[in-house]
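FAQ: What does a multi-protein file look like?

Like this. Sequence, then tokens, then the next protein.
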Amino acid sequence: MADMTPPPGAAAFLDAHGWGGAQILPVAGDASFRRYFRAIEAGRQAILMDAPPPHEDPRPFIAIARWLVDHGFAAPEILASDLDQGLVLLEDFGDDRLREAVDAAPDDELSLYAPAIDLLVRLRTHPAGPVPPYDRAVLKREAALFVEWYCPAVGIEPDLAGWDAAWDAVFDHAIALAPVTVLRDYHAENLMLVGSERSLGLLDFQDALAGHPAYDLVSLLQDARRDVDPAVEAAMLARYRTASDAVADAGNDFMNAYHVLGAQRNAKILGIFTRLWQRDGKPHYPTMCPRVWRYLERDLAQPVLAPVAAWFAANVPADRRGDPLAIAA
């Protein structure tokens, strides 16, 4: 369980920025070293992000938040920051997440997801922000988390040369000719429904890169944290493609990119969730791996991924695909 005691400098930081005497309540941690608290004072409230150096650097979050706001997207306003301590005071978007809204009204899943698709359509109309490229080297490094963490955990000695060759054969499909800002953790638990109009507020975008617009669609529609029905995935992909540039999405190019990035992201997540269990002592993450495997296998069934599918068929038997903690037991 994460320690949710406020950081030692929190009270002084709040006092220095006009929030003296605020009550500091834990909100949540996440898969990183970041922690979040709610500061409540005199009828107002804000979110205190604790992003402690050297593990975390809040500068990218601040820079991307400002870029998003400047381009008409709802990122939290930065109220104050102390970069040496890794403390940032943010606008509070509340607790109403898309995840819980969909869970409470599953019959409304399509209408609830539609604004999230429309936001990505708008994001695509802007050239990428001031972020590093999501290039072949990054894609390859992320995919390698599967063979570095998942495979050893379930007793597999993978064919590493074959792994690299398989991905090298498909990654051309995942490189954008006109990169956009890819938020990278764009899913139902990071999308807030803000205010009476329940407009979408964005969180957890500090790792944004300039890459293919299909990546955030994968994050949303192949969500590691909740089951997205294949029919919903198909309907939302159709909505996106209808509303976005028909020329750029002509033929199978866009869907090939979607499935290659889906396979890459899902392989990466299997590695990350295994690492969160083994290295960071967070055993609830492996329980989500069976869902991630279902998404991965749907992507691997696409012809564009034949080389990668062949590698998985040769290296990962069916009984090694699932919750790595349970398989290793």
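And here is the next protein:
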Amino acid sequence: MLGSLAPASAQVLDRRDVRRGNRDFRKEDWKNAEIDYRKALVKDSTSFAANYNLANSLYRQEQYDEAAKSLEKIGQTAAMNPHASDYYFNAGDIAIQQKDWKKAVDSFRQALLRTPDDLDAKENYIYAKKMLQNQQGGGGGGQDNQDQQQNQDQQQNQNQQQNQGQDQNQQQDQNQNQDQQQNQDQQQGQGDGSQISPQQAQQMLQAIQAREKETQDKVNKEKAAALKSRQKEKNW
């Protein structure tokens, strides 16, 4: 009887630590969640839930190598687990962060074999496969692509030099026009310090639009990054 009670008791403690980690995880307290899951693993190093959720908490802390190691510990049993699809999705997601495109492609393929209608897995699979092809030189013609890229770079440099010369001339003309306009504004607006010229108003509007575009570009980049980094979470 004593031999059968010990594993059961450890399993209860394991679940308590996992549930405590899940509560910390929902509060976005990644570090304490990590500590709770590690406590669970001290009692049961083979716990699928503890290893899986530990990988999630490490991922949130951008510790991608450690997260991968945590998933590897349950890799042999993952294929038979009811959550196998989520496991392979997260493994592929971590591989993307590590730029291990081959592993990412293989992992998302395994996820899609189990849940073919998972749109996130499809998007990430296509993305990882494209990056793998780029890494391998597009599947052939690597030297031709390199020569073509060098020619493009040379042409781009020439165009940049020409554009720089044009920009300098335009800048000189613009500076002259601005000086003339400022002189006119000073003469016209001496009696009213709050008055601004149409040109100044246009410049202010352009500056505001430029800042809005910069902010929108930043938001779009963050959305694109989030698309490639969604983790499947489980609160066992």
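Q: Is there any per-entry metadata?
A: Some entries carry free-text notes. For the entry above: Confidence is low (pLDDT under 50) at residues 1-10, 140-144, 189-193.
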